[in-house]
Amino acid sequence: MKPDWDKLSADYAEHPSVVIADVDCTTDGGKPVCEEYEVKGYPTIKYFTDETDEKGDAYQGARSLSALQDFVKDKLETKCLVDDPEACDEKEVAYIAKMQAKDAAAIVKEITRLEGISSTGKMAPDKKIWMLKRMAILKQL
């Protein structure tokens, strides 16, 4: 499974709304993370969306690369498109309108600001999701 996971991670390395990561629960750095997110067996795959609680949900599907890719496309990728906002929620539509009214320099400034916030570490799950949604929108403008 590890080679498929690494390939999936590489495929989404630059994606604005999907983060594929792994944690080694046997290391000093990984143990606290695994304890916090209640990982008890290995390998465990957890995912986080608007619908999951802050500890995420355990992925129960097949573990082939194609199954993992399908899951990410169906459940985790951003569906809100600036050019076709039908799948966007009200907050996203309002943000699109707000940012479309700004010039390119303001958009770059906002991307830089959000990237700075994201690099500071911990953030409430709902705030992180909203930040990722904004980043996804900004990268489409």
TrEMBL record:
EC number: 5.3.4.1
One family name in Pfam for this protein: ERp29
InterPro entries named among the record's database cross-references: ERp29_C, ERp29_C_sf, PDI, Thioredoxin-like_sf, Thioredoxin_domain
Stretches assigned to the Endoplasmic reticulum resident protein 29 C-terminal domain: 94-140
Catalyses which reaction(s): Catalyzes the rearrangement of -S-S- bonds in proteins
GO terms (BP aspect): protein folding
PANTHER family: PROTEIN DISULFIDE-ISOMERASE C17H9.14C-RELATED (PTHR45672), THIOREDOXIN DOMAIN-CONTAINING PROTEIN 5 (PTHR45672:SF3)
Name of protein: protein disulfide-isomerase
